[in-house]
Amino acid sequence: MMKSSELSPGSENVSQNNTRDEENQFEVAHNRSLLITDPVQPCRRTRAVVKEWLLKLRCCLGAACGMEWFAYAALGIFTAILSFLMDLSVTKLLRAHQWLYANLEGHTSLQFFCWTLYPACLCAVASSFCHNICPSSTGSGIPEVRTMLAGFELPPYLSLTNMFIKFLGLTCTLAAGSTVFLGKVGPFVHISTMVGAYLGKLCTLIQANKEDAAAGQMLVVAAAVGVSSCFGAPVSGVLFSVEVMSSHFALKHYCPCFFSAACGALTFRLLSVWSGDMETLRALFKTNFSTDFPFCPLEILLFAVLGVFCGAVSCCYLFCHRWILRFTKTNQIFIKILTTEKVLYSSMVAFLLATLTFPKSVGQYMASQLTMRQLLTSLLDNSQWSAPPQNTSLQPLLEWSSPGSPVYLPLAVFLLMKMWMLVLACTLPLPAGYFMPAFIYGAALGRLLGEGVAYVTPGQKWDMRLNPGGYALVGAAAFSGAVTHTLSPALLAVELTGQFSHAVPVLLATLLANGVARARQRPSFYDAISISKALPHLPSLAKACPSLLFTPVGELLRPQSVQLQKAAALQEIQRAVSSSTEAQIPVVDSNESGNLLGFALRSDLLNFLHQKKIESHVKHLDEVCTLFPLPVLLSPAITVQEAFEILTLVGAKTLFVADRGRLVGLITWSELKRIIEELAKEI
């Protein structure tokens, strides 16, 4: 006894490892002997050898650092490969469209039909996949992923069919180009989550002694990997997962998220280098801002004004977005079209948007021939378009300006047109992301302000050093952060461009834009979608119905019908076990007083009833089973949101509600989910 108590923790770990190794060796030998002696299966000896080596490999990998870490690495690598293949396919389709349009030069009517029918057909194909095969693959997917991470089950959104259709549909949507003006981030985060769900199930099967918590942790990690695999930005991907996805981010997810995101970002950049797209590992949108004199100290005030301006414009955009969502849910014509004629609606909207962006009409003032990536690259150009220096390239200026028109006209037309065009594109029933369009729109806002400042301050000492591309970078982070109510775009802007010299202005503008956008509890872009789809995501519902923050949980509780006295008879225990399916049964001092003492496990009571060790009357219930104390006790005055947060943080399945020690009821995780789902339907 004395010697065993003096053993160090390290020796205990050694003994556990030895025991595990012995079990693995026994399992290998057992499986090999079964395969060899089974006369039915063909190639018995070969199969036994292969399975033996696989089991040995599993033992070696598990002994090194745990199988889950290899799953995290596999998640990042596989998601990055999917992202690269999607970008490669989209690039080929976009080049085919540009080649066909260029070869029809001199035939305006044929160029018009080429320009309009190509994206219309692609959107029709994407919508047809979703409508006929998997309707749950439409939209961004981030609101649904947030709901699943909150503990609610949405099985159709994690199916293998959904992942396949989402990938194909998103490829077609992105191949439509800047005409439709939709992005990749949201759906790809959803795709990454589906990959993580299957890898989590695989880890659970391989590690039979592990709990199912590995699958839930894999979903949190996959949300961070989705962003890092899109842009090669691991740090902002993890921050995005913390801000958008999780109401409460556990520290145990911190290292797995960074590890998997780093694997995904590294794989994505290496694939870009090996394909010849990049010469070396560098930022995705590399800029050439001056590091000696990045900006004048007085420009900090202009960056702050830009942040406030982006926040105000985001409020207008979010208002239009909420209005169009409400209109599509209440207008009977739209309801009928989006229910039965999704393919026709998608093709008609895409044709309309393509008509407005035709390069030989209004499109010449919107740089419509540029792809989404080229749009952002040109907006981040560090030269002044209003007065470009002689030693700089005029290519971005030629792409945005037309003969005889000032450079401010195309930027103003771009901002005015893309505002309502993006709102209309949000109604398309196909896989689409909305973060990158907001990022580019914010860059155009910042570019317009930067060019305006350069125009109205000629002859100043710092005028020739003024960088409109820096304003575009600040505006991109501020507007996208205000739309999503997050700060991660500030870090994403720095990682995408590699411009740490503008880190302070970017963060300042993003903070101010968030302050304006979040005033008066306005819902974010993803919150509005959650409310429109009646998803049981409590933070979103609280913004739609502020009174929910003050709704006491006691008003929504069902009356507690099953409880046990401290001195309970055999018949009372049998009645409680048969009438209750809860794992924990409350124990009170007496039925008259109702003072809560603790709880007994239903499994313990069933064991004693089965073994017939309970007499006809017992003095104390704790003589026949363990009476567990209450770690957390809720008050009936606590709100629904507070109860949800406590259940999430504590990780308990059941919490008891008592008023001054008297049992009022109990609230379970399933009961709370039912309450939130009913509130979502009412709102």
From TrEMBL:
Signal peptide: none annotated. GO terms for cellular component: chloride channel complex; plasma membrane. It comes from the Eukaryota. One of its GO terms (molecular function) is voltage-gated chloride channel activity. SMART domains: CBS. It is found in: Membrane. Its main location: membrane. Residues 1-22 are annotated as: Disordered. Residues 1-18 have a biased composition (Polar residues). Residues 627-682 form the CBS domain. The chain crosses the membrane at residues 61-85, 163-182, 220-242, 254-274, 300-320. CDD domains: ClC_1_like (cd03683). Belongs to the chloride channel (TC 2.A.49) family. This is Chloride channel protein. It comes from Takifugu rubripes. The gene is clcnk.
